[in-house]
Amino acid sequence: MTRRKPTIIDVAEHAGVSKSLVSLALRGSTGVKTETRQHILTVAQALGYRSNTWARNLAQGRSGMIGVLLNDIASAYHTDIAQGIDAAASTVGLTAILSHGHRDEETLTARLDHMQDLGADGIIVVSAALNPDHLAAAATRTPIVVVGRPATVPDTVGSVWNNDELGARLAVEHLAGLGHTRIAHLSGSPRPASRARLASFHTTMTELALAEPHQVFHGAHALIHAMTDVATARTAPTAVFASNDRRAAKLHAAALDAGLRIPDDLAIVGYDNTELATLLRPQLTSVDQPRRDMGQRALHTLVDMMGGQPPRRDVVEPRLIARGSTLPGTNTPPATRTTP
C-alpha cells in the first residue's frame, strides 16, 4: 500500500498551528517569529513534507536554488553540515547546489562570485577562509550565512558556529575530574576555532590550578617522545586534549606503537565526535558539536534573511561523549555531558 504524502494540513496539525501560519513560514514570511518558523520547519522535515514551490519561485523571480560552499566534502565535519542544509532546504522547496574543495581564499572567493552569477537566492559558506571585506561586499547582492568560526563576521552576514570555548572546557574538566593534573593540548591549525580551543584550554587549566607550565604540542610524536624519554617522563602529561579527532587518532596510534596503554598511561580526548571516534580501540572520548543541526540552523537563518529578516548570530552548545580512551574498562554506552 502506497503511503500518503503529507500535506500542509498535516504539518499544521502536528505543529499545533494554523494552515495559514505554516504557509507563511514555508514562504519565508517576515511576519512569523523565528522560533515558530524553526518549529514548523522541524515538524515538516520530520513528516517528510515537500512544498511545491516551482510556480511561486517563477512568479517571484527566484531560482529556488541556494549555493553551499565547502572546504572538503570528504571531511565528516563538512559532510554532516551539508546533509543538514540539504534536508532542511528540501523541506522549504529549495535546492542546495554544493561546491567543494575550496581551501584557499582565492578559489573560495571565485566560487562565491560564480554562485551569485548563477542566480542563487542565498549562499551558505562552510569555511573560515573568506576575506571579511569580500564577504561584506558579496552580502550586498545575496543573503549569506557562514557556518564555522571566521575571524570576523560582517554585520550583514548571518553565522552559525560551535561554542569552542565551552567544548575545550568540557574536555579539560572531564580529564581533571578523573584525577589528571598534567593535561596537555595537541594543537591544531591556526584557524579561529582551533585558536579558541587553545585559549580556553589555557584558561581552564589556570582556573583549575592544574600543572604549570601548560604543555602544548604540535605533533603526536613529540608528545610521545616526552612521555617515553627518561629526562622528561616524570613531568610528561598523563592526559591529552586534542584539537580534533584526526589529531587524536594519530596520537592514539603513536601511543599504542610506543607500548603505552590507553587510558592507563595516557588518556585522550578528541574534538568533533566523528565516526572515527567509534572506530578506534579503545573508542575515543570526544567533544561533539551537532553538525547536522548547525547545517539546519544555517538554512533556517538563510531563509529568514531571504524573507527580509536581519542576520542572526547562532552559537550552538557542544557536549562531551565519554568513551574508553578516558574511562578504563568502559564497555557500556557512552556517557554525555553538556554543561561545565
UniProtKB/TrEMBL annotation:
Biased composition (Polar residues): 327-340
Keywords linked to the UniProt accession: DNA-binding, Transcription, Transcription regulation
Entry keyword annotation includes Transcription regulation: yes
Pfam family for this entry, one: Peripla_BP_3
Keyword Transmembrane helix found: no
InterPro entries (alphabetical): HTH_LacI, LacI/GalR-like_sensor, Lambda_DNA-bd_dom_sf, Peripla_BP_I
Residues that span the membrane, as ranges: none
Superkingdom assignment: Bacteria
CDD domains recorded: HTH_LacI, PBP1_LacI_sugar_binding-like
Region annotated Disordered, chain positions: 321-340
Domain spans labelled HTH lacI-type: 6-60
Molecular function, one GO term: transcription cis-regulatory region binding
PANTHER family: HTH-TYPE TRANSCRIPTIONAL REGULATOR GALS, LACI-RELATED TRANSCRIPTIONAL REPRESSOR
Full protein name: Transcriptional regulator, LacI family
Species name: Jonesia denitrificans (strain ATCC 14870 / DSM 20603 / BCRC 15368 / CIP 55.134 / JCM 11481 / NBRC 15587 / NCTC 10816 / Prevot 55134) (Listeria denitrificans)
